[in-house]
Amino acid sequence: MERSSKAGEIMDALNAFMDEHIYPNEALYEQQLAQGADRFNVPPIMEELKARAREAGLWNLFLPHSEYGAGLTNAEYAPLAEVMGRVQFASEVFNCSAPDTGNMEVLDRYGTPEQKARWLQPLLDGKIRSSFCMTEPEVASSDATNITTSIDRDGDHYVINGRKWWITNAYHPNTKIYIVMGKTNPDAPRHRQQSQILVEPDTPGISLIRPLTAFGFYDEPKGQAEIVFDNVRVPASNLILGEGRGFEISQGRLGPGRIHHCMRIIGQCERMLEQTCRRLLSRTAFGEVLADQSLWQDRIANARTDINMLRQLVEHTAHLMDTVGNKQARSEISQIKVAAVRVGRSVADLAVQAHGAAGLCNDFGLGYAFTRMNMIRMGDGPEEVHNRTIARLELKKYSDPGASSAK
Amino acid sequence: MERSSKAGEIMDALNAFMDEHIYPNEALYEQQLAQGADRFNVPPIMEELKARAREAGLWNLFLPHSEYGAGLTNAEYAPLAEVMGRVQFASEVFNCSAPDTGNMEVLDRYGTPEQKARWLQPLLDGKIRSSFCMTEPEVASSDATNITTSIDRDGDHYVINGRKWWITNAYHPNTKIYIVMGKTNPDAPRHRQQSQILVEPDTPGISLIRPLTAFGFYDEPKGQAEIVFDNVRVPASNLILGEGRGFEISQGRLGPGRIHHCMRIIGQCERMLEQTCRRLLSRTAFGEVLADQSLWQDRIANARTDINMLRQLVEHTAHLMDTVGNKQARSEISQIKVAAVRVGRSVADLAVQAHGAAGLCNDFGLGYAFTRMNMIRMGDGPEEVHNRTIARLELKKYSDPGASSAK
Amino acid sequence: MERSSKAGEIMDALNAFMDEHIYPNEALYEQQLAQGADRFNVPPIMEELKARAREAGLWNLFLPHSEYGAGLTNAEYAPLAEVMGRVQFASEVFNCSAPDTGNMEVLDRYGTPEQKARWLQPLLDGKIRSSFCMTEPEVASSDATNITTSIDRDGDHYVINGRKWWITNAYHPNTKIYIVMGKTNPDAPRHRQQSQILVEPDTPGISLIRPLTAFGFYDEPKGQAEIVFDNVRVPASNLILGEGRGFEISQGRLGPGRIHHCMRIIGQCERMLEQTCRRLLSRTAFGEVLADQSLWQDRIANARTDINMLRQLVEHTAHLMDTVGNKQARSEISQIKVAAVRVGRSVADLAVQAHGAAGLCNDFGLGYAFTRMNMIRMGDGPEEVHNRTIARLELKKYSDPGASSAK
Amino acid sequence: MERSSKAGEIMDALNAFMDEHIYPNEALYEQQLAQGADRFNVPPIMEELKARAREAGLWNLFLPHSEYGAGLTNAEYAPLAEVMGRVQFASEVFNCSAPDTGNMEVLDRYGTPEQKARWLQPLLDGKIRSSFCMTEPEVASSDATNITTSIDRDGDHYVINGRKWWITNAYHPNTKIYIVMGKTNPDAPRHRQQSQILVEPDTPGISLIRPLTAFGFYDEPKGQAEIVFDNVRVPASNLILGEGRGFEISQGRLGPGRIHHCMRIIGQCERMLEQTCRRLLSRTAFGEVLADQSLWQDRIANARTDINMLRQLVEHTAHLMDTVGNKQARSEISQIKVAAVRVGRSVADLAVQAHGAAGLCNDFGLGYAFTRMNMIRMGDGPEEVHNRTIARLELKKYSDPGASSAK
């Protein structure tokens, strides 16, 4: 997979920016975040860095085939996402952070001119942030057909009722728009019941119940909210694409977002493996430097091999998406989710263990990194769902009437 | 291993107490803890429950062979620890929580009459709490000979200098005494360099630098502190047992504490497995109740089997300690640490996954339970150290000059 | 679980016998077996050892609660089975080898006086051997209700038609009786359709199709046969217990046989761990004795811990069977199958790897030991079936109408 | 990695040949092999197929950059090796089977014109076969510096003394040449002590001690031999490249052979996964087709993901070898060995388990496939050695004086 010269230039610029502006400001970012008046605040350094990134032309790099984006293919963007993934907050600096990326793609692809003007443009400018409201506490949301939030037509409006949770960004001070998934057509066929609709956070009837913690973390500054929608009325023109097309929209956003997530995980794994090596080189137990002990070497080697295998599969999947399309790459798009979480959790575990008690707290960022890997496991479909998809596609090769005979 | 009738009666009383007083107050305890003025506070319900437990004769059950304790063997106490382990805060209610238990054992066994009067008695009465200061941030403390804190004799005093961290209880409002491990005799043979000394928290020169988080948890109300000892002077009479006997003291406290920890882990695992079953029975995905799916059944079965194997090994180890002694049971005492953490982490992982996103937060106590299992992994020696011990004892059977020939 | 003095004496005698007669003859046994005129032959040393064992009173030790046996409980017999398990052919020396043991138990418990005189007595005398014919190639026999062999009444006879495979002992020269499982009542409720019937190998219509190999082993001298029953007529009096009672009979034989199998696996694991330690102490790579390398120490420690946990669980299960009965111990009886195979395969894997290429061949008995562990995995129900049973029993605690509420 | 049109045409021809000639003759090959007069014989169908393959231009495809070969890069040859790997004997049909391939590469690169005329040409013509004699029973050969066979200069000859084992092809009737590794310069620096020398099997002093079995298999028709070299004299001109250059030669052959092995493993995994799916679709237990059960689906999905990750990594490694060279790809060349064995063993395990008892025997080729995966684990360096290499290369990034500071 040869990289175009444009992609190569962006990569060079990105690496230079990371070296010059991101790594040196990691500590400052954490410090400003911790010292903010509110739990959920925007560290001033973030806005400074965003301005610099935009100036450097490192902005909205994720958006393919669009008048707004860098025009990179998935395969070209993937290595950039890996680099950004090395620092937890870096993607946002380049306006490339989830769920804004997915929301922008949806608006870019399916939004009306009015919707684009009102919400896509400020998102592209990094002026506002956004949420995607899907998961519900009362049902196994891993089966998306279980979603129960209702979106009922009432004249020129839709009325929304339901409870959502784990809504990323909902506590972020800049969040100005939600995309909400719910049922407009409960009597339609299972995959035509759901719709997606745009909702502004200050609409009456919306209550942020509480910030959720993941293993104790509030995931600042974006936060994870539980939200109740109680007779929330929005104009009918806020509906995206049309009634019953919620699944269709989700399918479209799924693939690229998956690549981004997985490549960021790889970046984070590389960072943790580096930390692990440095730590093991610096510590001695029972008269032997830890890095010289075969047990630790075995673990380092497995981590290196796992990360490399994962990267190859993710980049191959990106290539498939670019060439044969998301639908043909369905199995791979599920595979990389499962594999990335497996590798990510395993490398995080190694890094924590290599750092001893220091790995549990956040002195090396590992407490959060470990937690993050476990959060990602749940997000975007648990492995049980993805493995079901992969297996069914595999079995179909042999169970279809036209399947070739044994070989 | 037949249980004595006394142990049986205590078990009945304990179960009744759990049913009547502990389970019904779990939510209240969490609520009071969250609402305390300070992060580290004692929920009022705790003191109420302690009074009731003492009244019910369920007090200091852990202390064997002593005028103060219930006179139970390790094998008899073990199942009680399991029951207490089902609720995070329950051990404290019965004055059976670490590190107080270990500290009380040390004082009971090695303390001078003055040391006992001043610190053992209030500990036995549940009036004060205590810390054990061993782990240091600057060295691989898993090899205890690495410990660098100095305890230097200066006339009638010892002067302590060093930095400790992950000091449980240090932020607990009731903590009035530390046992500190450090080097009095840096030039002695490796296992005769260390001593243990009693230090009161308000001694000049002690600074609590910061509360540490494990993943994102502050582990309230006890807390995990980083502490600096800067020329801290304590009377020479605070030394326990004598100079250079720190390792000897540690060996003594190790065995029983290990049993307690492991049995509590088992109790917690049982609770989590119960939660897992209930959850899976209540959720449906892709048209099938999760509890009916073979993948989840496989996981439940493995958890059940693992827990049962672990319990048998821990109870067997307690029995060995009671009959042939800690030294002969050295390998088993290490085995149960490794096995308990392995099973505990695996069951916590299952419970989290079964609860979906609800498993990450603390609505079912699982976010903390998962975190706790990872903390325990580090505490009390990581598996690398224990496995080294087990393997060396195993290999010694065949490498000693007198080892029998191949069979 | 205190051992009775009788059991202790037998253990001493058994260990002495192993030292004096079994270990010193291992090589001879293998040599005679390899040099036999036929693939399936009885090495002369086997008959010599059997005579000696019987003389020493080490005979039919497995048979509980019977006029014929040693009168040991399951818990008392278990450690003896472990010792026998250390050498592949040792159980047969003491007339304690499967499937004869299970077949003798069935005849002892359910046989008519005539059946006992004709087949039980020579089995008890070690004069003949026997097979149990259950598994079929055409169906998933792990679900025993799938079994399709028909056993049809025809006057004073039953006529058997079907195909069985993996029939242990069928090629053994001394095998004189089969117990065959099949359907007498295909229209009865699912667990009342099957019966067990006694069939002599020279009955017309029986064809031994071929000896099966496990990986590449023929499992000499007993062999694993594929057998066709083509209109095989046996007297109606050969039926055991009655029509439709096949499952009931199976249940009875299941528990004790499981204990035997699992304890033999433990004996074999101990032997392999010993071999592993000796090997690692004797080999050097990259300038360090393998036994001193932390990676190998980690593996040794895990093997030691796993074996110990398994032994405790199996002995506990034997104790449960002796005290509360097989039905109450159903979950544990399944647990030990799954756990024993898991540990057995893992220790075999370790031993093979520690021996390098020598582990693949049979110079240290490891090629067969590894194979054996994989055979046992299939036999007696695969883990999928046992885990299903364990999980369903676990879930039942919370799904029954009378289940206690959440705690 | 775009495939050249030449490579694409060869792939099409190879697939067509497999469909027309290989798959339809699998049973015949096994039957002829089993019916041969000797254990080690060449099934007649093999020579027929070889003639056809050569005729079809599908011959010596593995040999890169050479007047003799197809001129394919490693990346181009890799997918062909995968296809051949689907059938155990297929590589030989195309004169692409180990260890002949590695031996031919060595002779092609380092052989004298005389050596080439005498041994390379008949090997290229598929007229003879060959062995590579390295592993020794007495030392941990995984550390190649341990090799003790001596190769001593004596006038115009070298005299070889030593014992080798696991010598593939040594029992093959067509094997006419060995390459033997041993020490010519025991006092030189560690990596300059060894040499490689050509030895004809009928040279006096060579004894084939016995055929070795792997899990009971004799690995016919090639066989695995134990060989003693007792004062074996060969002309000095048989030495390859020069004294002390044995390691250098090994390095050269290592990379491409690794790619071939790993791709064949992938081919075999694909075949086993296909068999697994077909089997699970055809069997029912407890009222549900196995393929519909979530536990089996989870396993299928993991196998699919693992195979895909492995393929990407191996193809990427081939690409690295083609572009930056073997030395720069050292870590990856080790990674794919470890990863391929891990995946291969896991998929073989799945296939065996899915087939129940039929997986243990060879009715579906799985008994041997499983065994083969375990043999490959040992061959070509065990994972302990490769992981050591990988880890040391990884750690070197941070321990070298010039290593960049933490990031």
From TrEMBL, chains A, B, C, D:
Q: How does it assemble?
A: Homodimer.
What are the Acyl-CoA oxidase/dehydrogenase middle domain coordinates in residue numbering? 131-232
What cofactor(s) does the depicted protein rely on? Answer: FAD
Q: Which EC numbers characterise this protein's activity in its record?
A: 1.3.8.7
Question: Which organism was this protein described from?
Answer: Novosphingobium marinum
Q: What is this protein called?
A: Acyl-CoA dehydrogenase
**GO CC terms in record:** cytoplasm
Q: Which UniProt keywords apply?
A: FAD, Flavoprotein, Oxidoreductase
